[in-house]
Specification:
The complex is a heterodimer of chains A (336) and B (327). Chain A contains 15 helices and no strands. By secondary structure, chain A is mainly α. Chain A has one domain: MetI-like (MetI-like fold), CATH 1.10.3720.10. The N and C termini of chain A lie close together (10 Å). Chain B has a domain of 184 residues: Rossmann fold. Chain B has twelve helices and 13 strands. In chain B, strands 7-8-9-3-10-11-13-12 form an eight-stranded mixed beta sheet, sandwiched between helices. In chain B, strands 1, 2, 4, 5 and 6 form a five-stranded antiparallel beta sheet that branches. The longest helix of chain B has 18 residues. The chains are: A mainly alpha (336), B alpha/beta (327). At the A-B interface, helix 11 and helix 12 of A face helix 2 and helix 4 of B. The structure holds adenosine-5'-triphosphate (ATP) and magnesium ion.
Chain lengths: 336, 327
């Protein structure tokens, strides 16, 4: 098992290098002179321009620039934001818990609803229930996130008034940020109603971010279950006198989870992409909203660093999923 | 009283006006401690009929019977829950494909103790000790260390031994073995067959031995049921049927045995194929392939008629001891 984890971990290195190449190219492929961009409309003298080029290392050959960039990136140094002049990594890390909390709640919601829905659809295949689950999940999958988010805000927050419109916490509640995770911080504080406020703020954005993963997980679970339910070992379990519920939830689901886990891993990318839009709609102070704002401000170091960090998170989550895959599937674990 | 009584068992697939009868009016009985062979070509309904006996035919399949009783208990009136109490304990089954019949995600130990947990309870340690004991009984070396292995680490023969251990875990009185050796190496086949027969004798367990190999039946079974296209065409004691087959199909099957073909230039085969879902003849199902076919055979279905010594045959003109059709 340890060698299995190590082998998977080694694969992270080329993926990381690939991402740095992409983010590096991103800035260097953007047309226009970065120094002129910095200077803005005021203009700049030729001497000052050359000075800045040297200062930013932009007069060096491209490969050397990349090597410097990669070396810095590995040490966690992604430059400073042009706007706030704070290190990009630091800005990212203060905002990341908000995104992580949202993504975690969204994927939990998607898994807790998607797997049972898929199992139910497979067991009751061909019935109205099955068709219902499939139609709803197809609709969810095709829903534009932006539109879906606004619709929910209008309906649930606006007309029904059930949940707050935006943010992470009621502005009347003041509390310290200990972990950056509202659900935890609100439990640590003595402020009354903080936890329920944190939850109420999380519901709608989680639902919006989780909709596409939910649809994908439900469909994948259904098709994996349909395949597994026809397997010989399911018949063997029934021949032992195992109850129908246990045949489905233990013998079949355990096998069906193998492809489902892969899909869940692939959804983390989708999840963070969804978070970028959703955070903007819900004014959620996470890295997604920050990234969109940085793009608007042409804060290239922030954009470059933000994308690299988000991509790194996706790579690490996929590593975690690979390891989990080995835990669930003994055939992988033992292969040399 | 017979241990297992099956009368007019029919299994249909596909609804509508024209369902496909995979099993049609199958009847047989099985005494305590007896080995009953069921033989027939591929597609003759051997597996489906035995799955019906186990209560394992699932949704699109529809099972009907005028009587299906185990040890005098009518299986058709039992609730699903009561029925499950029998399956896996008093009645157990092993399958044709041992490699795919074990769940790849669970250890051998888990899969054996599961049956014990359902039907006998006991403590974890007791179940584990019993599992080790069972693995030893089916001839797996160093059984204690095998509990933690996963099915993909086992060979076909080993998998089938584990399946057998699982099946006999709760001391069944009836073991249904559906072609237990077909998927195995020839050298392993004999070992597994020996193991099954030894266990059967030691435990006085009745066995429904499904096979398409008449040689196995001759060696292992007391009585035999010959199936063709979902029907029983002949049944009786092994010596009687092997000496004097009364149904033309049984005779043809026997003639196809390699050891009966000594002197012949090539193996005897039965020309034609088993009728499928859409080309079932109106009369006797064998009529298109039967060498002795008469006009009546093409228009009327022969019934399964009782003969001497609990034998039965489904033929208007059964063969006499000289192999000549009677009038
Ligand atoms: N679930 C099912 N749905 C529809 N038809 C089925 C189903 N299961 C079996 N059949 C049909 O029933 C017939 C009998 O099948 P069965 O598996 O009992 O044959 P068999 O005698 O066991 O053959 P073999 O020697 O190949 O195992 C076949 O024509 C098969 O196609
Ligand atoms: Mg079969």
């Amino acid at each position: 098992m340890i060698s299995f984890v190590l082998r998977r971990a080694l694969l992270v290195i080329p993926a990381f290098i690939g991402v740095t190449l992409l983010t590096f190219a991103l800035v260097h492929l953007i047309p226009g002179d970065p120094v002129l961009m910095l200077a803005g409309e005021r203009g700049i003298s030729v001497e000052r321009h050359a000075e800045l080029m040297t200062q930013l290392g932009l007069d060096q050959p491209l490969w050397l620039q990349y090597a410097t960039y990669l070396g810095n990136a590995i040490q966690g140094n992604l430059g400073k934001s042009i706007v706030t002049h704070r290190p990009v990594t630091e800005e990212f890390l203060t905002l990341f818990p908000a995104t992580l909390e949202l993504s975690f709640c969204a994927i939990t919601f998607a898994i807790l609803l998607g797997i049972p829905a898929g199992v139910l659809a497979a067991v009751k295949r061909g019935t109205i229930l099955d068709h219902g689950v499939m139609v709803v999940s197809l609709t969810g999958y095709s829903m534009p996130i932006f539109w879906w988010g606004l619709l929910l805000i209008m309906l649930v927050s606006g007309i029904l008034g059930w949940t707050p419109v935006s943010g992470r916490m009621d502005p009347t509640i003041w509390m310290d940020s200990v972990t950056g995770f509202m659900l935890i911080d609100s439990l640590l504080t003595k402020e009354p109603g903080a936890f329920s406020s944190a939850i109420r703020h999380l519901i709608l954005p989680s639902l919006v971010v989780g909709t596409i993963p939910l649809a994908v997980i439900a469909r994948m679970t259904r098709s994996a279950m349909l395949e597994v339910l026809g397997e010989d070992y399911v018949r063997t379990a029934r021949a032992k006198g195992v109850s129908p519920l246990k045949v489905v939830m233990v013998h079949a689901l355990r096998n069906a989870l193998i492809p489902v886990i892969t899909v869940i891993g692939l959804q983390t990318g989708v999840l963070l992409a969804g978070a970028i839009l959703t955070e903007t709609i819900f004014a959620w102070p996470g890295v997604g909203k920050w990234l969109v704002e940085s793009i608007g401000r042409r804060d290239y170091p922030a954009v470059q660093g933000g994308i690299l960090l988000i991509a790194t998170v996706v790579i690490l989550v996929n590593l975690l999923v690979d390891v989990l895959y080995g835990v669930v599937n003994p055939r992988i674990r033992y292969r040399r | 009283m017979a241990l297992l009584e099956i009368e007019n068992l029919t299994v249909e697939f596909g609804g509508g006006s024209n369902p496909f009868r995979a099993v049609e009016e199958v009847s047989y009985t099985l005494e305590k401690g007896e080995v009953l062979g069921i033989v027939g070509e591929s597609g003759s309904g051997k597996s489906v009929s035995s799955l019906a006996v186990m209560g394992l035919v699932s949704f699109p399949g529809k099972v009907t019977a005028s009587r299906m009783a185990f040890d005098g208990v009518d299986l058709q009136t039992l609730s699903p829950r009561q029925r499950r109490k029998l399956t896996g304990s008093d009645v157990a089954m092993i399958f044709q494909e041992p490699m795919t019949s074990l769940n790849p995600c669970f250890t051998v130990g888990y899969q054996i103790t599961e049956a014990l947990k359902i039907h006998q309870g006991g403590t974890r340690a007791e179940r584990k000790a019993r599992a080790v004991d069972l693995l030893g009984q089916v001839g797996i070396p160093d059984p204690a260390s095998r509990l933690g292995t996963f099915p993909h680490q086992l060979s076909g023969g080993m998998s089938q031994r584990v399946m057998i251990a699982m099946a006999i875990a709760c001391d069944p009185r009836l073991l249904v073995a559906d072609e237990p050796t077909t998927a195995l190496d020839v050298t392993i086949q004999a070992q597994i067959m020996d193991l099954l027969l030894t266990l059967q004798r030691e435990r006085g367990m009745a066995m429904l031995l499904i096979t398409h190999d008449l040689a196995v039946v001759a060696e292992a079974a007391h009585r035999v049921v010959v199936m063709y296209a979902g029907q029983v065409v002949e049944s009786g004691s092994v010596p009687a049927i092997f000496d004097h087959p009364r149904h033309p199909y049984t005779k043809a099957l026997l003639a196809a045995l390699p050891e009966r073909a000594i002197g012949a230039e090539r193996l005897n085969t039965i020309p034609g194929v088993v009728p499928g879902a859409h080309d079932r003849p109106k009369g006797c199902l064998l009529a298109p392939r039967c060498p002795h076919v008469q006009d009546r055979c093409r228009t009327e279905r022969p019934p399964l008629e009782d003969g001497p010594d609990q034998s039965r045959v489904r033929c208007f003109y059964p063969l006499d001891p000289d192999g000549v059709p009677t009038a």
